[in-house]
Every structure is written in C-alpha cells, then in structure tokens.
C-alpha cells in the first residue's frame, strides 16, 4: 500500500503524472472519483488553505471528510513500548488503527515540536501513523510539505512550460520567529527532481537544512545532469534566475533553546525579496507558500507584481491534492 | 457583484423579496439551489446558531460548507501596505483571494476588537475581504448583523403582519460586560427601513450608537414618513409599543479602556425587560437575539410568555440565510 | 419521544435489537436510513473516536452533521430560574429549543465538571437538553457512556457468542489523574443487564461508584439470576473470568478538592492489567475504552495480545451508533 509522505520516493514520471492529472482536475473539478469514501483530516497545527482545499477537493470528488483538530483531541504518544505516564493520553498505535476502521484515508499535519531535531528529523508522528494505520496516509506538512511542492511545480509549469534546466533560486527570507524547514526541504526536493538548476541561498552555514535533504537534492540534481549550489551570496543566487522561491526557517542547531534566544537577528531583514534583487534575475517568477508576511518576507511590489505566482500556487493546492487522493484511492 | 454586508444598501423592496423567499424556504426547506456550490464560513468569534444554521441551510440547498475557526488559523492583517512584523501572519489580500479560488461564497464573522472605534467603525476585516475577494461575501456579524435583523423582521411579520406604522421600542438592557453594538445597529436600520415608528431607549447619551447608524435610521424613517425618537425615559419608550426589541451594548467612548473600567454599573440593572415595563405596551411582542442571559436582560416571565418571539426569530435565521445565499448565487 | 441517554431504560431485548442491527450495519455500512436528516454533535469535551465515528456513520446513512465544539461556543446555564449574571451566556432552554428547529437529532458530550457530585450525579446538562429539546437526544458521554457500552457488548458477543453466565471482571486500573466514572458506570449496567456474572474490583471502598449504578447493576443481575460482587481482592476478581474490562476513575468523595490532592497514589500502580493477572483468568478477553495509556493502565503484552478487543470495540462504536440513530429516527 502506497502513502504520500514525501515526494522523495515518487519518481519524476510519477510526479509528472500527478501534475498532469491535477491539470485535468483543474479543467474538470467535479468528478466522481471518491464516491462514498471517507477521509480523516488530522490537524495538530493551524491551517487555512490546507483545511479548506482538502475539504473542498474531497467534496468535489464525491467523498466526505472529518476534521480532527489538535484543540479538540489530546496529545498522542509515538514511541513503541513507552510507559505513558506523561501528557499523552493515547498511543498512535490505537489512534491510527481505530481511524483506519472508520475512514478510507488519513491525512495528517504534525509540525516538529522544535525540541529535539535528532528525534524530529525522523518525523515521529507521521512514521507512527504509517506503522499502524491500515489505510493510505497523506502528509499535510510535517518536516516536509509535499502537497505544497506539487502546487509549486504546477504553478511553475503553467508559467514556464518545461522546467528542465530552468534556474531556480531558493532563498531564505526574514521572519521574526524561527519557522519550520518543511517547505524549503520540499521545494529543494521538488526543484532538483524535476530537473531545475538549483541554488540555495542561506544567510550563513548556521541556517543549513538537514543534510539528508541536501544529499537527496544533490542526488536528484545529479540524476538530471544539473547542479545544486549552496551559497551565502545574494547576487550569485539571484543573478540570471528564472524563478525565485522564498521561505524563512529557523536554525536547526538552535532547536530546543528558549524562544527568546532563537529570534531572528534584525540584520537578516536584508534578505527580504525586493525589486532590487529581482532585477538581478532573468525576469524571474516569484513565489512563496502562504501565509506570508508582506513587506517582511517580500515587498508589496514583488508580491503584487505580474510575475508573482503566490495565488496560482495556493489555488493549485486544491488540484494537486485531488490528484494525490485519487492516485492513492486507485491503487 | 453584490455582497450581503448590511441591509443599508438593500432597498425595502429587495429586503421584502428576501423575506418572502425565506417564507417559501420555511415551507419547502430542501431545494436544489446551491447544488455543487462550496461556501467558506469564517468565524473569528464563537458561534452556535450562526454556525449551525448556515451549515444546515447550505446542506439543505445542496451545497457544502467549510468552517474556519479563529482557533484553527492565525491573525489576519487588514491594512494595505502594512509592514507585517507584528502578530498577523497573513494579509487578507492573500486569504481572500485564495479562498475565492476554493469556494463560491465567503461568509465572515469578525467582531470589532473594541480597541479603537475610529478604526473599527469602518469594519476593517469585512472591508478588506470585500476589497480582495472575487466571490460574494456574507456578513455573519461584524459591526452590524444583517442576518439577525432579517430574522427579526420575518418573526415580526409572522406575528404582526404588515409592520408599517407599528411602534417599535428598541431598548438597551443590562449585561455585566460591554457588548458589541452590532445587533442594535442592525435592528435600528431594519425597523426604520421597513416603516416602523421607532423609539431607541438608552440609559444616557453615553450609550449613543455610532452617529452613522442614527443618521441612516433617521433617513429611513423619514423616507417612510415615520419618526426615530431617542430617549432615556423608560415609560416614554415602552408606552403603546407594539414590539419591544432588547439588546445590551457597551459605550463606544469607553472602547480601548481596560475592561474593569468598562463593566456596566449595577444601577443599570433596572433596564431589565420585565412584566411591569411590558404592561405599559400595546400587548407588545418581545424579542432579543440569542444568546441572552435570563433574569438579567429579561425576566423568565417575559422570555417565556406567549408574546416572546425569541425562538421564532432564531429559527428564522435558517430561512433568511438560505434566501440570502440563494439571492447572491443567482446574480 | 424516546432518547438514548442511558441503557438503563432500554430493555435487554431492545438492547439486543440494537446490537443485531449494528451487526447488519457492519455488513452493509451504507444505507439510506437518515436521508436528508441533520444531526448536531455538541462536544463540551475533547473527542477523537466519538466525533469521527458519529460523523462518518451519519454520512454513511445519508444524513449530515454539524459539530459544535466547546471552544467555538460559550458556557450554558442548566438551572431553571437562574439569574444569569455569572459566566453562562445562554440557557439550555434557548440552546436546545433553537437547535431543535435546525436539526432532527442532538447528540451531546458533557462530562461532569468534578465540582459537586451531588449536583453532577443528576447529569444536569443532558437533563436540561431533554427538558427543552423537541427532537431526540443522544448521550455521547456524560456520567454514563451508553454508546461505549453497546460497542463493548457487540465486541464481546462477536468473540464469546452468548454472554449469559459469562464471568466479567470489571477492574479499576491506574491513571495518574482522577477520571470520569462514566465508562465504568455504563460497563456495569450493560454487563449485568445482559446476564453476565459480574465482579467489580476497586482498590478500596473510597473508589465506590455512585450507589445508584451499584443498585441498578444489582437489580439487573438479579433479574438475570446472576450476582454482582464488589471486591478489593485482585485474585478473587480475575480468577476464572471470561472477560476483563478495565477503566480508571477518580474518587467521588474527592470531587471538588484541588487537583493536587486528587492525584492517584503511586501505590495503586499495581492495579495495571498485566499477563500475571490475566493468567488467573479463564483465557479471558481484555478490553478498555480508548484513549488508554499503555504500560500504565495495561501492559503492551495484554493490549497487543490476541485476546485484546480494544480495536474491535472502538470500531463497533461506528456500527452501534448508526443503529441507535436509526432507531431514534424510526420512532
């Protein structure tokens, strides 16, 4: 049984098939593909787009969804053999097996807690659900965000056509708080896998993404005969780019420290995506997952410019997710 | 494209058409008018009736709804050009445009924050959604509550028949905390527009509603050849009334002060709607939007009396909202 | 009009009819029995299984549900005649009557507040809904949990066949915090009513369940020619049992005390259900409602053993609840 946990284990051809089906679903949104199917949407973190687009997409395909919010339930234990006298009231062993008797698929949002990256990098909640569930699992963002990256690829293809050899600048951008690395991990995996020439711009080595994603990105780039360049040089990253994708994230080496020590230094506000930097590119498109702080992560001029793909990318969440659910349902 | 933001910009004839359709929908609740339509219900404040009646009504008409709760999402920025380094993670510019790609209508509850009335009187959240959304917007209570006032009108017409020239007493009533003025603003607009002779009873000038609603109410009354009387005299307000509508609200001049300074003085408990006051009327009907604190805002004897319309009015929320959604969908 | 508040007022034959229908619904899950019916699910406490299984079950039967969470609404007054100047913004008199105009059934989860058992033992929230609603009410757990006990009975019958004369050990088990007695109250009512020979194992008399449940259990046992034995002796309770049902609960005589005084003494950890105790039984099945803390309430070896019914029982929630809703709808 196949899950949709990360794009890493879906081949380039399989991802392209999902993207092609998403385009078909964009043209013909209401199809009877999930007739009578029930899907649980488990949110351990807030959501606006993900929740709405999954619910609408499932309804469009004739299925039904049940939303479970963190606030409406209780902490779950993920470790096998645990003596559960802490805060967790239930083990994923039970939650996943029971939900599997009620529904046909389970989609999960579970951010890392930013307490211990050595544990969190193994995606413990998602992994536990995969271990115990007897129905397909969909990742709605954990340490990666594969639905977002499919939506990004779809928006890029709609504007650029083929992505082969297109130059992608993936840039860290400012946000006052240390955020999840999931979206940039996924953007890196997706862009390299689809044959883009990728440069990853970070303020310093301290902001390096987990080595497993850097290694996978390098491997995918290599398989396509492309490169993955890591840099701290803004001009090098932007110069000649066909596409700019921005996201802020926190330092992995600071996970577990008190929040006041982890706040982003003001000096890094200069990484904001602005017209000056965009002028270095090859008339690049701009995108960023949402939510996005305006005039902090990117200026209004960039966000509202004709090269901005942010709304298209967000809309495409609906279409790619329908393609993913449809593919998992058909297996 | 038309929205349903306030009854102020819907003509008397248009409002009556909505009320007539609501009666038809009360008689025949299940009609295929929203087949395949998706509607987002965005709640930035708690709700029991609004949430249930919108969800049920949409299902009855063949549509589907997605509920977004404040608790499950994040604060939204409403000001254009803002440098978003405060608490807001997303601008309405994005939220409204993205939701517009997922759904066919957006309904919003967004109370004022009671921090700065000079800003809040312009209904910033609702206005921002109107500015950016590309689908119709429905007001589920902000600084006015037009769905409630339609429900009130429907309940009144069911009991009184024509409302022309009927004497309406709109009375402030006691509640320990300073509440939103939305319902009374709306009741004033609705009663004057439909040709009632309206008296607004407040404890003192300090409790005056925003001048823009007083002015609109006076204008509507004038257009119908009726009057709008403002008074602090309980007997004057109740004497001869055909209908009494009660609601508590906080002083606008105290918005922004610490809550402990804004608590309602005990002396004003005397504004409770009781049998003694009702005895002054012309056997008036009584109503109040819900929730309502019994024996604080009105006595059990009044609330449970045969002239009480509170349950009919609350039920009518379902019917009038279906009429509103249907009208917006048909344009 | 009949409600489903407790199994106490449903006869043995009526309960068996619900269980038989649940088996039919397990075999044929999608049936058009609630076509066009709307059901409100009111949760004043968190839920995972109850919420999911009710929503899925209602959809399977062609109906629609609206979920109302405590977090999304406000405290409700239950006492008639109350002067509502405390925290409650609305009386159940209004909430129940209004919901009755929107939906065809109302299901409610409302745990006792553990402040004053002399009040809470009368199930004030549920009782108030019954007093005022004009549609059938379903108990989703208050001071009893009748849906859970039907699911337990169904799982037991699937494994044991007839339950007549089977020996049931109901055991208190360890949990660090004092929990609701509802599930054990219900297990006691159900097991005695269905003709099992029941032993209730508690650490001491201080853990006695409310006398009204003990009395009802004794009466039901007597009607079946069986006994209800109360004991503090672990070996007596487990010896020869055909089924073991475990649940932790807090002392009724400590309700209202500060939580730190109510925490369960460490010495009672020995009540954990483990292989040593299970070895005393007649190869008994094991069950526990979920959530359940592993290696605190029961060991992994017991929970994961082939005699464990926990997942079957949880799955059966879906089937028995569909049978209950169907029966209430057919009256």
From TrEMBL, chains A, B, C:
SUPFAM superfamilies: Aspartate/ornithine carbamoyltransferase (SSF53671). Residues 2-158 form the Aspartate/ornithine carbamoyltransferase carbamoyl-P binding domain. It is an enzyme of class 2 (transferase). Keywords: Transferase. GO terms for biological process: citrulline biosynthetic process; L-arginine biosynthetic process via ornithine. Residues 181-327 form the Aspartate/ornithine carbamoyltransferase Asp/Orn-binding domain. GO terms for molecular function: amino acid binding; N-acetylornithine carbamoyltransferase activity; ornithine carbamoyltransferase activity. Reversibly catalyzes the transfer of the carbamoyl group from carbamoyl phosphate (CP) to the N(epsilon) atom of ornithine (ORN) to produce L-citrulline. This is N-acetylornithine carbamoyltransferase.
């Amino acid at each position: 049984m196949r899950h949709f946990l990360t794009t890493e284990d879906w081949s380039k051809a399989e991802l392209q098939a999902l993207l092609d089906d998403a385009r078909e679903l964009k043209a013909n949104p209401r199809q009877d593909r999930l007739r009578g199917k029930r899907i649980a949407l488990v949110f351990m973190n807030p959501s606006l787009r993900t929740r709405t687009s999954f619910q609408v997409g499932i309804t469009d395909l004739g299925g039904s969804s049940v939303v479970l919010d963190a606030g409406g339930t209780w902490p779950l234990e993920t470790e096998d053999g645990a003596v559960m006298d802490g805060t967790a009231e239930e083990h994923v062993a039970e939650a996943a097996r029971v939900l599997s008797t009620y529904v046909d698929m389970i989609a999960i949002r579970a951010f890392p807690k930013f307490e211990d990256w050595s544990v969190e990098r193994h995606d413990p909640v998602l992994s536990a659900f995969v271990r115990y569930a007897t129905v397909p699992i969909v990742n709605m963002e954990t340490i990666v965000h594969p639905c977002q990256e499919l939506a990004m690829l779809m928006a890029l293809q709609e504007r650029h056509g083929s992505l082969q050899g297109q130059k992608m600048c993936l840039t860290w951008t400012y946000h006052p708080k240390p955020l999840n690395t999931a979206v940039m991990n996924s953007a890196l995996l997706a862009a390299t896998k689809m044959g883009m020439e990728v440069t990853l711009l970070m303020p310093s080595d301290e902001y390096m993404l987990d080595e497993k994603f850097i290694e996978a990105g390098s491997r995918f780039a290599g398989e396509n005969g492309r490169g993955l360049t890591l840099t701290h040089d803004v001009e090098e990253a932007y110069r000649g780019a066909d596409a700019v994708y921005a996201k802020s994230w926190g330092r992995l080496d600071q996970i577990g420290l008190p929040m006041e020590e982890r706040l982003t230094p003001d000096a890094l506000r200069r990484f904001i995506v602005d017209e000056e930097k965009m002028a270095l590119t090859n008339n690049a498109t701009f995108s960023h997952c949402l939510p996005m702080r305006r005039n902090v992560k990117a200026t209004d001029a960039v966000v509202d410019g004709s090269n901005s793909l942010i709304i298209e990318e967000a809309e495409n969440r609906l279409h790619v997710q329908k393609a993913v659910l449809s593919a998992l349902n058909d297996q």
